Amino acid sequence: MTSSHLSGRVVIVTGAGRGIGRESALLMAAEGASVVVNDMGTALDGDGADASVAQSVVDEIAAHGGKAIASSADISKTDSGAQLVAAALDAFGRLDAIVNNAGIMRGAPFCEMDADTWDLVLRVNLSGAFHLSRAAAPYFVQQRSGAFVHLTSTAALIGSMNQANYAASKNGVAALSRSLAIELEAHGVRSNCVSPLAFSRMTTGATGRSEEDPVVVKQREAEGAAAVAPLVAYLASDASRDINGQIIGVRGKEVHLYSQPRPVRTLHESDGWTVDKMVQKLAPSWRSSLTPVERTRDVFTWDV
């Protein structure tokens, strides 16, 4: 392998056995990083486990002359973050970047969603990112360098049907990333989000496209993951040192910088507000600035 932008660096990638995580791990290894490949090898909904999924990525990295180890730690567990950080330090002697990619999806109409379905998705997608980030942050602060790359979703940033738990978890990831960026910037540590808009194992499960030709589905998933991986690798590298606290989307050959919540209109009432005054003034004044109730496909209407 040719060392390049991540030469000598060590990175942990969760959910690295398939899809975006796999492509990111492979690319970062190709760019010179040593990689902790974390994946339980579960199905999209979190069921089952297969340690060979992570090991196959390690084997592929090794076959190309790279360095990697496999981990099947369950990131939804409190001690998983410490296990992964310890594994990186034991195997490679340092740690430079975290890619919080692992996630599951269990969609349901909100009126039919039970508490267990809600809790499981939040535990894996949001608490999993917390556990690993919490374990790595003190190490990054001590060495005064480090990068967090978190995978969020347009389901959270824009909206989606029948995915309230997934959207809430991924919006939480974006808030976690921003908080880390603010708190740790003074210590030389960065935190950013990647929001893929690509045909992936997640979108296949969410849209029912699993009924399409499996060969075509697999090819499109690979293409989508390959489009996202360069941004993940870039944000994990020192080359992106000037980027912190941002959300960057990927859609085919496009990348786009997301806006983040800020006031867009202000309305002042000198004598204070009553319900009657709000009825009279709020909607008429702000109607043209209200964000429509849209989904991703309503916002991204052009082909790439």
UniProtKB/TrEMBL annotation:
It comes from the Bacteria. Residues 9-205 form the Ketoreductase domain. Pfam families: adh_short. Belongs to the short-chain dehydrogenases/reductases (SDR) family. This is NAD(P)-dependent dehydrogenase (Short-subunit alcohol dehydrogenase family).
